[in-house]
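Morning run. Coffee first, then this:
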Amino acid sequence: MASILRVNTLTDASSNNSVPMATVASGSAKCWMDLNGTGTIALRDSFNITSVADNGTGLYTASLTNDFESTNYLYAGSAETGTDGQNGRGVTGVSTQILTGSSKLRACTLSSNTAEDLPHIRVGWWGDLA
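And here it is:
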């Protein structure tokens, strides 16, 4: 039997550090992943990600467990080589077609916009789930 807990604000046991439920519902990442994008790709850790497909050098499709309500969501990510903490890598979208149940991603060197397979790709998504 399912239960529903209805509250307006969450707070800690000392009644400090309160946060409105609207902030929790709207401001929390709805999914995220930490992906090893080299060789046979593998999720190190994730939330609300069903799978990730390897679509070629630096190209991936992340499929979500629970879809977004609409295509009006945001994602942000970072990528790195992992060898010496090099900066200058990023994650960008690769498609003008935004879907509610998946995201196409591209890991690349920011200075040259060259797609590359990277061992550390981390992405988070924010928006309303369906």
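The chain is about 5% helix and 45% strand. Good start to the day.
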